[in-house]
UniProtKB/TrEMBL annotation:
Annotated DUF218 domain residues: 36-154
InterPro entries reported in the protein's UniProt record: Cell_Envelope_Assoc, DUF218, Rossmann-like_a/b/a_fold
Listed name of the protein: YdcF family protein
GO cellular component, one term: plasma membrane
Gene Ontology biological process: Gram-negative-bacterium-type cell wall biogenesis; peptidoglycan metabolic process
Pfam family, one: DUF218
UniProt lineage: Bacteria, Pseudomonadati, Pseudomonadota, Alphaproteobacteria, Sphingomonadales
CDD domains, alphabetized: YdcF-like
Cited PANTHER family: ENVELOPE BIOGENESIS FACTOR ELYC, INNER MEMBRANE PROTEIN, PROBABLE PERMEASE
Protein backbone atom coordinates (compact mmCIF):
# COMPACT_ATOMS: atom_id res chain seq x y z
CA UNK A 1 0.00 0.00 0.00
CA UNK A 2 2.75 2.47 0.96
CA UNK A 3 4.75 1.52 -2.12
CA UNK A 4 1.72 2.17 -4.35
CA UNK A 5 1.07 5.52 -2.69
CA UNK A 6 4.72 6.48 -3.15
CA UNK A 7 4.63 5.43 -6.79
CA UNK A 8 1.40 7.38 -7.33
CA UNK A 9 2.86 10.52 -5.73
CA UNK A 10 6.03 10.17 -7.81
CA UNK A 11 3.96 9.78 -10.98
CA UNK A 12 1.86 12.80 -10.01
CA UNK A 13 5.01 14.84 -9.40
CA UNK A 14 6.49 13.77 -12.77
CA UNK A 15 3.29 14.61 -14.66
CA UNK A 16 3.10 17.96 -12.88
CA UNK A 17 6.72 18.66 -13.83
CA UNK A 18 6.00 17.83 -17.47
CA UNK A 19 3.02 20.18 -17.45
CA UNK A 20 5.08 22.88 -15.71
CA UNK A 21 7.80 22.72 -18.39
CA UNK A 22 5.37 23.22 -21.27
CA UNK A 23 3.33 25.99 -19.62
CA UNK A 24 6.00 28.49 -18.60
CA UNK A 25 5.04 32.13 -18.19
CA UNK A 26 4.67 34.23 -21.33
CA UNK A 27 5.14 37.91 -22.12
CA UNK A 28 2.09 40.09 -21.58
CA UNK A 29 0.04 40.28 -24.77
CA UNK A 30 0.33 43.43 -26.88
CA UNK A 31 -2.45 45.82 -25.98
CA UNK A 32 -2.57 44.81 -22.33
CA UNK A 33 -3.84 47.84 -20.39
CA UNK A 34 -1.32 49.82 -18.37
CA UNK A 35 -0.96 49.36 -14.61
CA UNK A 36 -0.29 51.75 -11.73
CA UNK A 37 3.21 50.37 -11.15
CA UNK A 38 5.80 47.89 -12.38
CA UNK A 39 7.64 45.44 -10.13
CA UNK A 40 10.73 43.71 -11.48
CA UNK A 41 12.17 40.78 -9.55
CA UNK A 42 15.97 40.57 -9.67
CA UNK A 43 17.86 37.39 -10.34
CA UNK A 44 17.69 36.77 -14.06
CA UNK A 45 18.95 38.32 -17.26
CA UNK A 46 16.65 40.58 -19.23
CA UNK A 47 14.30 41.35 -16.35
CA UNK A 48 15.46 44.89 -15.61
CA UNK A 49 15.76 45.67 -19.31
CA UNK A 50 12.18 44.48 -19.84
CA UNK A 51 11.01 46.60 -16.91
CA UNK A 52 12.73 49.69 -18.31
CA UNK A 53 11.17 49.03 -21.73
CA UNK A 54 7.71 48.79 -20.17
CA UNK A 55 8.33 51.95 -18.13
CA UNK A 56 9.45 53.79 -21.28
CA UNK A 57 6.39 52.46 -23.14
CA UNK A 58 4.10 53.99 -20.53
CA UNK A 59 2.83 50.69 -19.10
CA UNK A 60 3.13 52.32 -15.65
CA UNK A 61 4.50 55.58 -14.28
CA UNK A 62 6.67 54.05 -11.54
CA UNK A 63 8.84 50.93 -11.10
CA UNK A 64 10.26 48.98 -8.16
CA UNK A 65 13.24 46.69 -8.63
CA UNK A 66 12.66 44.25 -5.78
CA UNK A 67 15.49 42.26 -4.26
CA UNK A 68 18.30 44.56 -5.32
CA UNK A 69 21.55 44.24 -3.41
CA UNK A 70 21.68 46.99 -0.75
CA UNK A 71 24.94 48.31 -2.24
CA UNK A 72 23.40 48.87 -5.70
CA UNK A 73 22.69 52.50 -6.59
CA UNK A 74 20.83 54.18 -9.42
CA UNK A 75 24.23 55.06 -10.90
CA UNK A 76 25.07 51.33 -10.96
CA UNK A 77 21.77 50.65 -12.70
CA UNK A 78 22.51 53.33 -15.28
CA UNK A 79 25.92 51.75 -15.98
CA UNK A 80 24.31 48.33 -16.34
CA UNK A 81 21.94 49.78 -18.92
CA UNK A 82 24.85 51.44 -20.77
CA UNK A 83 23.59 54.94 -19.99
CA UNK A 84 20.11 54.36 -21.40
CA UNK A 85 17.07 55.51 -19.46
CA UNK A 86 18.82 57.95 -17.13
CA UNK A 87 15.84 60.28 -16.94
CA UNK A 88 13.46 57.43 -16.14
CA UNK A 89 15.82 55.94 -13.57
CA UNK A 90 16.18 59.28 -11.81
CA UNK A 91 12.47 60.05 -11.63
CA UNK A 92 10.60 56.82 -11.67
CA UNK A 93 12.64 53.84 -10.41
CA UNK A 94 12.93 52.69 -6.80
CA UNK A 95 15.47 50.12 -5.67
CA UNK A 96 14.11 47.71 -3.07
CA UNK A 97 16.70 45.86 -1.03
CA UNK A 98 14.55 44.35 1.72
CA UNK A 99 13.81 41.04 0.00
CA UNK A 100 15.95 37.95 -0.43
CA UNK A 101 13.57 35.43 -2.01
CA UNK A 102 10.32 35.24 -3.96
CA UNK A 103 8.07 35.37 -0.91
CA UNK A 104 9.84 38.40 0.54
CA UNK A 105 9.78 40.01 -2.94
CA UNK A 106 5.99 39.90 -2.74
CA UNK A 107 6.01 41.26 0.81
CA UNK A 108 8.38 44.10 -0.12
CA UNK A 109 6.31 44.91 -3.22
CA UNK A 110 3.09 44.95 -1.17
CA UNK A 111 4.52 47.53 1.23
CA UNK A 112 5.73 49.65 -1.69
CA UNK A 113 2.41 49.34 -3.55
CA UNK A 114 0.45 50.21 -0.40
CA UNK A 115 2.61 53.30 0.25
CA UNK A 116 1.97 54.48 -3.30
CA UNK A 117 -1.73 53.62 -3.25
CA UNK A 118 -1.31 51.46 -6.35
CA UNK A 119 -4.14 49.10 -7.28
CA UNK A 120 -2.56 47.34 -10.25
CA UNK A 121 0.92 46.01 -10.91
CA UNK A 122 2.88 44.86 -13.94
CA UNK A 123 4.95 41.90 -12.63
CA UNK A 124 8.16 41.10 -14.51
CA UNK A 125 10.35 38.04 -13.97
CA UNK A 126 11.71 35.12 -16.01
CA UNK A 127 9.32 32.69 -17.69
CA UNK A 128 10.39 29.79 -15.45
CA UNK A 129 9.96 31.91 -12.30
CA UNK A 130 6.59 33.47 -13.14
CA UNK A 131 4.26 30.77 -11.77
CA UNK A 132 5.70 30.88 -8.25
CA UNK A 133 6.10 34.66 -8.35
CA UNK A 134 2.51 35.22 -9.45
CA UNK A 135 1.34 32.77 -6.76
CA UNK A 136 3.18 34.70 -4.03
CA UNK A 137 1.99 38.06 -5.33
CA UNK A 138 -1.65 36.89 -5.45
CA UNK A 139 -1.34 35.55 -1.90
CA UNK A 140 0.09 38.80 -0.55
CA UNK A 141 -1.78 41.35 -2.65
CA UNK A 142 -5.16 39.65 -2.69
CA UNK A 143 -7.92 40.19 -5.18
CA UNK A 144 -7.99 43.96 -4.72
CA UNK A 145 -4.84 44.36 -6.84
CA UNK A 146 -4.82 43.59 -10.56
CA UNK A 147 -1.65 41.73 -11.54
CA UNK A 148 -0.38 41.72 -15.12
CA UNK A 149 2.18 38.94 -15.56
CA UNK A 150 4.93 39.67 -18.06
CA UNK A 151 7.49 36.88 -18.32
CA UNK A 152 10.88 37.37 -19.92
CA UNK A 153 11.51 34.45 -22.29
CA UNK A 154 14.59 32.40 -21.45
CA UNK A 155 16.11 29.04 -22.28
CA UNK A 156 16.24 27.43 -18.83
CA UNK A 157 18.15 24.26 -18.20
CA UNK A 158 16.40 21.12 -17.03
CA UNK A 159 18.08 21.63 -13.65
CA UNK A 160 16.66 25.16 -13.36
CA UNK A 161 13.18 23.94 -14.30
CA UNK A 162 13.32 21.01 -11.89
CA UNK A 163 14.52 23.23 -9.05
CA UNK A 164 11.86 25.85 -9.69
CA UNK A 165 9.08 23.26 -9.99
CA UNK A 166 10.20 21.66 -6.73
CA UNK A 167 10.20 25.05 -4.97
CA UNK A 168 6.73 25.78 -6.35
CA UNK A 169 5.31 22.45 -5.19
CA UNK A 170 6.94 22.75 -1.76
CA UNK A 171 5.65 26.30 -1.33
CA UNK A 172 2.11 25.28 -2.27
CA UNK A 173 2.31 22.38 0.19
CA UNK A 174 3.66 24.64 2.96
CA UNK A 175 0.80 27.09 2.46
CA UNK A 176 -1.75 24.27 2.30
CA UNK A 177 -0.35 22.71 5.50
CA UNK A 178 -0.03 26.16 7.10
CA UNK A 179 3.62 25.71 8.02
Amino acid sequence: MILRLGAFLLLLFALGFALFTVTLGTPAPAGTPAADAIVVLTGGSGRIERGMAMLAAGKAPRMLIAGADPSVTKADLLRRLHGKGGRLIACCVDLGSESVDTRSNAEEAKRWLDRGGYKSVWLITSDWHMRRSAYEFRRHLGSRTRIVTDAVPTEPSLTTLFGEYSKYVLRRLAVWLDV
